[in-house]
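Sequence in, structure out.
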Amino acid sequence: QVQLVESGGGLAQPGMSLRLACAASGFTFRTSSMIWARQSPGKGLEWVSGILSDGSDTAYADSVKGRFTISRDNAKNKLYLQMNNLKPEDTALYFCAKDREGRRTTVGAMPFAVYDYWGRGTQVTVAS
């Protein structure tokens, strides 16, 4: 059974950093592109970042570009999101999700329907 479990969220002051992790199981992680998305009352569900199955390409939403870094460790079946210089507008519930298509060759924002499994999320709150 596919399982995605996010961790690493919490409270942070503006300018501080957090590192989120997503532990994956129940599927061949190394062949699946992955994304991070976030949900907040003001902005709804927003795609944040994506990474190809082998980590060879990444993409970011304009709102986080230059501050966040997505990475993965296929040997450990883990996905990460390093979040630097956090801003109050980064406050959201952060989800990881897997692409239903194996070995995709391009990465970027796509309709959420292409992501067939989602974690339950980890809350990030940025406030002074």
